[in-house]
Prior knowledge:
Layout: H1 10-21, E1 27-28, E2 32-33, E3 39-40, E4 44-46, E5 51-56, H2 74-97, E6 101-106, H3 111-123, H4 126-129
Parallel strand pairs: 5-6
Antiparallel strand pairs: 1-4, 2-3, 4-5
Amino acid sequence: xxxxxxxxxxxxxxxxxxxxxxxxxxxxxxxxxxxxxxxxxxxxxxxxxxxxxxxxxxxxxxxxxxxxxxxxxxxxxxxxxxxxxxxxxxxxxxxxxxxxxxxxxxxxxxxxxxxxxxxxxxxxxxxxxxxxxxxxxxxxxxxxxxxx
Length: 148
């Protein structure tokens, strides 16, 4: 498993290239130390707008469309893949509690769809709306930012 990359995968590079060509600047594989000692490393982090982007591989994160279950050594692979998904959900929860927006993109999604999802999150992030993360009520649709 040494050859399995943690960063700079082809889908991640394609998304970063597309975002960079549109003028967006970000941190890659940036460690976020959240409250309670929780550490999260999003693939792409927009720190000023508090948006974390993860590009998930279909196998490693159990994609419902393309994720395959190994038939050999099931006792090893099932818990390992289940822990990956549980870790993803825990990271999402910690980031949301800290006021970050989370975008998860599957590796099989077209790049245009992935870019649109990231741009939508950037447009509705607390920093983009001119409000503090605590003031953002996620149960209601976002309203436009007040005029300055």
